[in-house]
Specification:
The chain is of the alpha/beta class and 436 residues long. The chain has 15 helices and 19 strands. The protein has four domains: 123 residues, Rossmann fold; 116 residues, 2-Layer Sandwich (Transcription Regulator spoIIAA); 111 residues, Transcription Regulator spoIIAA; 55 residues, Nucleic acid-binding proteins (OB fold (Dihydrolipoamide Acetyltransferase, E2P), Beta Barrel), CATH 2.40.50. It is globular and about 60 Å long. It binds 5'-deoxyadenosine and iron/sulfur cluster (SF4).
Amino acid sequence: MSADKKLFIKTYGCQMNVYDSERMAEVLGGKGYTQTDTPDDADMILLNTCHIREKAAEKIYSELGRFKGLKAANPDLKIGVAGCVAQAEGEEIIKRQPMVDLVVGPQSYHRLPAMDDAIQTGAKALDIDFPEDDKFETLKKRKKGKRAPTAFLTVQEGCDKFCAFCVVPYTRGAEVSRPSDRVINEARELVESGVREITLLGQNVNAYNGHEGGLAGLIWALDKIDGLDRIRFTTSHPNDMDDVLIEAHGTCDKLMPYLHLPVQSGSDRILQAMNRKHTAEEYVRLIERIRDARPDLLLSGDFIVGFPGETDQDFEDTMELIRTVNYGQAYSFKYSTRPGTPAAEKPQLPEDVMSERLQALQALLKSQQIAAQDSMVGRTVKVLFEKKGREDGQLIGKSEYLHAIYADAPEDALGDIRDVYVAEAGPNSLAGRLVA
Ligand code: 5AD
Ligand code: SF4
């Protein structure tokens, strides 16, 4: 087999997929593939897909359609679908789009080398099992060598919450935590390769139970790693924010003051129909407790508008919750029917009602985000510089609050954490200068 094959991976959806794509590239590296950033000269194209909303899934089929010309020009080109659409639709994908050679679910991608052997003989390969073997154990150790200063590290997968709208418990399976010694070893290796900030990932990361004391216990264990300066985690469920984790926000210096804590709705009626298992009031009180521990925390959330049965009053309750909590940033979506989920059985709201509500909700969230950005002007933040900006002499990094920030800085500041005075605020980024 030639040792210089080119692999193009396109990643959709959440950060878990970003992490998985990296691991898939690593495992296929063992088969002689190196990554390329264009599909045009690729020997294999892998789409690492997201199934969370209908639009995300449909996009995959139109994207596959676009590769037809490439496949016609190069019959040896192999096309694979990975991730959550692969898990949910399996063989259907090959039926609907026969030029697809390989379909691999998020729990089986350590088997990609064998699947690659199979497709090279002209066969199709399908693996959407939830195998007994631990994919993280089978995967090769991560490559040593210079890495970017920030990295994702998956510590938990799957979800047992079964929110009525969500496909994740079906596509990603039951909650599983990786044993902490393996997570800690992987973190050490990342740090040895130049990583200074690690974001711990899980569909329900604060339900992590691979270490005594849960996620907080793991965070404190990682806190001991010299050279690791920043720890973040995402995504969390309000009901798994336990006392020790809340406390860690106030006492662990390496744990950054940013928290993504989705609530989805501010109406108790809708929260119950969503099977969220908490009230709006309980969420607001939880936020108060976390802010007591870390007053400058930047809070982020997820919202769904137009869940089946949502009335004008339910929507107004969501708006009121947003006004009460005040978010530094947030993500919001129209409800999207996902086949197989309990909410899919219920009558849907008209599209125009959903659009109108989403617009109003996004306007409110945007105004809060802009106010939060503006409030940073005149402050000094600590920035971990990650990459060069578009302009000469400019670097881009992240503040402790996860603001993207531009600053004139020498190239040797890349990978360093420096004090930056914030001079200007835009809706999505800040600009500043190094404090001497
Ligand atoms: N429709 C709309 N948004 C959804 N999300 C999850 N499932 C759906 C759905 N069926 C949103 C939730 C979740 C985020 C990752 O995606 O807000 O927190
Ligand atoms: Fe989906 Fe998150 Fe609910 Fe789990 S907790 S079912 S991943 S929305």
